[in-house]
Amino acid sequence: MTTIPKAAYRRILLKLSGEALMGEENFGIDAKVLDRMALEIKEIVELGVEVGLVIGGGNLFRGEGLAKAGMHRVVGDHMGMLATVMNGLAMRDALHRAFVNARLMSAIPLNGVCDSYNWADAISYLKSGRVVIFSAGTGNPFFTTDSAACLRGIEIEADAVLKATKVDGVYSADPVKNPDAVLLKRISYQEVLEKELKVMDLSAFTLARDHNIPIRVFNMNKPGCLKRVVLGDDEGTTICHPEKVKK
Ligand SMILES: Nc1ncnc2c1ncn2[C@@H]1O[C@H](COP(=O)(O)OP(=O)(O)OP(=O)(O)O)[C@@H](O)[C@H]1O
Ligand SMILES: O=c1ccn([C@@H]2O[C@H](COP(=O)(O)O)[C@@H](O)[C@H]2O)c(=O)[nH]1
């Protein structure tokens, strides 16, 4: 008889980078990366973990970039939020193809395309083992999907926000620009804020700190890393309150 290993979390909010979905491309979604991520999510669903999912939109549009090109920032942010819905549609489809039950909710109502965000429905879907994809960020311009991930994570009472990214965790400086940057295993919210370590935006961090939800940052390009994080293995960086940093 095979025994299912015990997960360290009961319910998580997983934040997937939109940029990571591009794989080796310059824009859009690499089907191979999408399908691999869907299979990795399936593995943790099979461990009995309830999964809320927020996907970024950086592979398609970001309001900031569009504003630099001359567009009104609010319109650019609307496009960025709709980009996250497109990523959500692709991920829901990939999950369904992998025989994982999933619902897509949008903070901007899109009748006929997906469900509108509803907290009570989300909780009931999670309890029934469905993956819930929260798209369109917070529904408001001037925010990011990192803030949306912390917000939804707090709302669904997730045990942690798991930020899946392209680097191994939080470093002493941006590792892409600074090859001497050192990987930090545990760090407090305050230290991240004071040192301005930009792996997530500051409003997301302050929200997580004020509501005491831990953040795990890890590399989604490493196959099996998500499962190892969920099983409590030593992967990536944990951001939490100072009294828990030393443990
Ligand atoms: N101190 C730091 N530690 C780790 N990463 C850092 C740090 N400072 C900046 N970064 C950068 O932050 C990036 C995080 O990018 P990621 O694509 O995961 O986030 P995002 O911009 O929220 O995602 P999306 O593509 O969905 O918009 C890393 O690729 C890394 O280069
Ligand atoms: O609450 C939100 C979330 C996102 N946006 C816009 O969408 C893009 C894509 O999100 P990323 O987090 O950068 O991947 C973002 O740049 C914003 O333009 C938003 O307006 N509000």
Low-confidence blocks of residues: none
CATH superfamily: Acetylglutamate kinase-like
Mean pLDDT: 95
Described by strand count, sense and barrel closure, the largest sheet is: 9 strands, mixed
What is the annotated CATH architecture? 3-Layer(aba) Sandwich
Identify the strand order in the major beta sheet: 4-3-5-2-1-6-10-11-9
- Quote the CATH topology: Carbamate kinase
Number of domains: 1
Strand-residue proportion:
15-25%
How many DSSP H or I helices?
9
Give the class from helix and strand content and strand pairing: alpha/beta
Helix content: 25-40%
Identify the quaternary structure here: single chain
Shape: globular
The value of Rg in angstroms is 17 Å
Per-chain topology:
Blueprint lengths: L10 E6 L14 H15 L4 E6 L7 H6 L4 H25 L4 E5 L8 E2 L2 H9 L3 E5 L9 H11 L4 E6 L4 E2 L11 E2 L1 E3 H7 L6 H9 L4 E5 L5 H6 L6 E4 L1 H4 L2
Parallel strand pairs: 1-2, 1-6, 2-5, 3-4, 3-5, 6-10, 9-11
Antiparallel strand pairs: 7-8, 10-11
The protein binds adenosine-5'-triphosphate and ligand LLZGTKA7.
Give a description of the structure.
The chain is α/β, with parallel strands linked by helices and 247 residues long. It has one domain: Carbamate kinase (3-Layer(aba) Sandwich). It is built from nine helices and eleven strands. The strands form two sheets. It has a nine-stranded mixed β-sheet with strand order 4-3-5-2-1-6-10-11-9, sandwiched between helices. Strands 7-8 form a two-stranded antiparallel sheet. Helix 1 (31-45) packs across helix 3 (73-97) and helix 5 packs parallel to helix 7. The chain is globular, with a radius of gyration of 17 Å. Bound molecules: adenosine-5'-triphosphate and the ligand O=c1ccn([C@@H]2O[C@H](COP(=O)(O)O)[C@@H](O)[C@H]2O)c(=O)[nH]1. Adenosine-5'-triphosphate binds next to helix 5 and strand 7.
